[in-house]
Amino acid sequence: QVQLVESGGGLVQSGGSLRLSCAPSRSVFSINDMGWYRQVPGKQRELVATMTSGGSTNYADFVKGRFTISRDNAKNTVYLQMNSLKPEDTAVYSCYARILWVVRWDDYWGQGTQVTVSS
Question: Is the pLDDT of residue 102 over 90?
Answer without folding.
Answer: no
